[in-house]
Specification:
Layout (H helix, E strand, L loop, with lengths): L2 H5 L4 H7 L3 H7 L12 H8 L3 H8 L18 H34 L5 H39 L6 H31 L11 H39 L1
Length: 243
């Protein structure tokens, strides 16, 4: 029996405990992983009238082993790195912000009286989400196309326009400042959540929220590293060599 097949017999709560990202799939299908966490996946799907294959196909990518540690991002061209950032990290942000906001809102509403820090965490994450979405849209519409155009000009033996070069300088400065603000908000959430540690009486949604926040922070750090330390450095090298 392979790993995906064996999931059918596992309890929802056990699946989520092993891989918190699966909570997003169950939430999408309306499968209760909190109070209904004791149900087998097969039984939960039967109750909802959902074909189990439809659910396991969504779960499958979450259990594949990552090989990202083998990647050498510094060797990639700016254009290829941009495509990777969009398809991996921008996609992650767009998918996870709504999901985590929903968890945070629920936890703030249910547990906010006894654990008021969760009300602040919810408000801060909503603010962080808005900033990140605006940031990545600006990158995709302005910054990344500029980098690709300048890279293409250089590869073709053409001098990039001074207007493009100056715009890129300013855009990179703004992007780095925006990332610092986002990092500060995320650091504040970590502090309020006691380093993402839940109290002993925390329900499943409470635990899933904090696990998601920890994973979101990890992805954000990787995202910022790829942009600030690799992509933007390559772009700055373009500017220095052309100037």
């Amino acid at each position: 029996m392979n790993q995906i097949e064996s999931l059918k017999e596992k309890r929802i709560g056990d699946i989520v405990a092993k891989n918190y990202h699966t909570a997003g799939v169950f939430r999408e299908f309306g499968i209760d992983f909190c109070c209904g966490g004791g149900d087998r996946l097969a039984d939960a799907c039967d109750k909802k009238g959902i074909r189990i294959h439809t659910v396991t196909e969504q779960l499958k990518p979450l259990f594949r082993k990552s090989k990202q540690h083998e990647l050498n991002y510094s060797d990639w061209s700016p254009a290829f790195l941009i495509d990777y950032i969009i398809s991996t990290h921008h996609k992650f942000v767009r998918k996870k912000t709504d999901e985590i906001s929903a968890y945070a809102k629920k936890v703030a509403g249910v547990h906010g009286e006894h654990y008021p820090e969760n009300v602040s965490i919810y408000k801060m994450f909503v603010e962080l989400s808005h900033e990140l979405i605006e940031h990545l849209e600006a990158e995709e519409k302005r910054v990344f196309p500029l980098i690709k155009q300048i890279e293409q000009d250089i590869n073709n033996g053409t001098n990039p326009s001074q207007g493009d070069l100056e715009s890129l300088r300013l855009e990179i400065e703004n992007m780095v400042e925006d990332r610092e603000e986002a990092g500060n908000i995320m650091a504040g959430i970590r502090t309020l959540s006691n380093d993402f540690q839940t109290p002993e009486d925390a329900c499943a949604t409470y635990r899933i929220l904090y696990q998601n926040l920890a994973g979101f922070e990890e992805d954000l750090h990787k995202h910022v590293h790829l942009e600030n330390n690799i992509l933007f450095r390559k772009a700055e090298n373009f500017l220095a060599n052309v100037a």
